[in-house]
Design a protein that fits this description.
Number of domains: 3
CATH topology of the largest domain: Rhopdopsin 7-helix transmembrane proteins
Structural class: mainly alpha
Strand content: under 5%
CATH class of the largest domain: Mainly Alpha
Largest sheet: none
Distance between the termini: 94 Å
Shape: elongated
Order of helices and strands: HHHHHHHHHHHHHHHH
CATH architecture of the largest domain: Up-down Bundle
Radius of gyration: 29 Å
Number of helices: 16
Number of strands: 0
Length: 389
């Protein structure tokens, strides 16, 4: 029975990988130069998925021992997976940071260890380790020693990839904050979820390298099947978001600013006064490109002014101005709903308005309005009492 389940799970993995590879190759994409690296990543993913399917077919055909502690085959596949998923996700956040040099540097150590292992195994053999006692006894066997080195390399690799991804994710968020006033729908949270899920898969492979139970190993394989399919389905949704975020992550492309002719005469106080007087910050879905064009200044210059003079990024500054304006409206128009107030100050979603309001004031708009109403009524009562006496 267990053999049938194992065959079913492994076959599902093969079929799933081949199917997703076909989807990656056939996915229609808009003819957009900014999506060039995304197209490359799709081809790379398709090739990797096919490679995983081929390796799984070899496993089914060769029928190696189900239990083999710190198997070089399993660790090599895990290392390739870790690099593939991480760089594929970073491509979505920062396409310009992905280069062939980075890929080569990442894959070269694993390749060197594999070549070294093949040379050593051909000379001293490739022992099958099915107990911890045997692992301890053969710890300094040349082949086993290379496998142990690969375990250390893989741990370091996971740490490096995690650090790299977190850095690029923060950079992406900074680029959004310096471009959009409303970016909460463009955060690509699913990319983070996919990465941490991939990290968990990578750690699970490491753990499974020290597990002796065939049933537990089969359970891990089932998780890999689900993850591969889920990752592929999420990844192909990216172009829908890219059309919105392209100006932020590709400032040197079609949104490149023209140098301002009067750059030497620009004074932030004048620009700020124009923004506040004409309340340009209340415009729905305003971004720094539109505001810079309106002020007849370069986008980079405007961003630098806001960051240096206000001590805030574009997103934080605009939201601060909007929330301050909303406080006036909440008092001035007590009969207006929060949805109406949020629209008046430029928010397309009332939920985002409430979130930003609470973040800046530590109170929800409704609580803040009620507090102001109570204070106003108390002031009126005191004023009436003074008039009586």
């Amino acid at each position: 029975m267990e053999n049938h389940v194992s065959l079913f799970v492994n076959t599902a993995f093969v079929i799933g990988c081949i199917s997703m590879a076909g989807v990656f190759m056939a996915l229609p994409l808009p003819s957009n130069a900014g999506l060039r690296k995304y197209r490359i990543s799709l081809r790379f993913l398709a090739g990797t998925y096919l490679l995983m399917a081929l390796l799984e077919i070899c496993v089914l055909a060769l029928n190696p021992p189900a239990v083999n502690l710190i198997s070089m085959d399993k660790l090599s596949i895990a290392s390739l997976q870790a690099s593939m998923f991480t760089f594929a996700l970073i491509t979505l956040l920062s396409p310009r940071s992905i280069t062939w040099r980075n890929l080569y540097l990442q894959l070269t150590p694993a390749l060197i260890l594999n070549v070294l292992y093949l040379l050593v195994a051909s000379r001293w053999g490739n022992p099958v380790i099915q107990s911890f006692q045997k692992l301890l006894e053969m710890a300094f066997h040349p082949s086993i020693f290379i496998r142990e080195l690969f375990v250390l390399f893989y741990i370091v690799q996971l740490g490096y990839l995690t650090r790299t991804f977190i850095h690029q994710a923060r950079k992406y968020e900074s680029e959004l904050d310096n471009y959009f006033a409303d970016n909460y729908q463009l955060q690509l949270s699913w990319v983070r979820y996919c990465f941490y899920a991939a990290l968990c898969i990578g750690i699970s492979v490491l753990i499974s390298s020290f597990i002796l139970s065939e049933r537990v190993l089969l359970g891990f394989t089932g998780l890999y099947v689900i993850f591969y399919l889920a990752f592929g389905i999420c990844y192909i949704q990216y172009p829908r978001t890219y059309v919105h975020i392209e100006p932020a992550i590709y400032p040197s492309g079609k949104t490149m600013e023209e140098p301002s002719k009067n750059k030497g005469r620009i004074v932030w106080a004048d620009l700020k006064n124009t923004i506040l007087t004409e309340k340009y910050y209340l415009k729905p879905e305003v971004n720094i490109e539109e505001m810079a064009r309106y002020l007849k200044i370069g986008r980079t210059s405007l961003s630098r002014f806001i960051n240096n003079e206000e001590g805030l990024n574009f997103n934080a500054w605009i939201n601060m101005l909007r929330i301050e304006e909303s406080k006036l409206f909440l008092v001035k128009y007590p009969d207006y709903t929060l949805i109406e107030i949020s629209e008046m100050v430029g928010y397309s979603e009332s939920s985002n308005f409430s979130r930003q309001f609470k973040q800046l004031t530590s109170k929800s708009p409704s609580v803040w309005r009620q507090t102001c109403k109570t204070v106003y009524e108390e002031d009126q009562t005191l004023h009436s009492q003074k008039q009586i006496f």
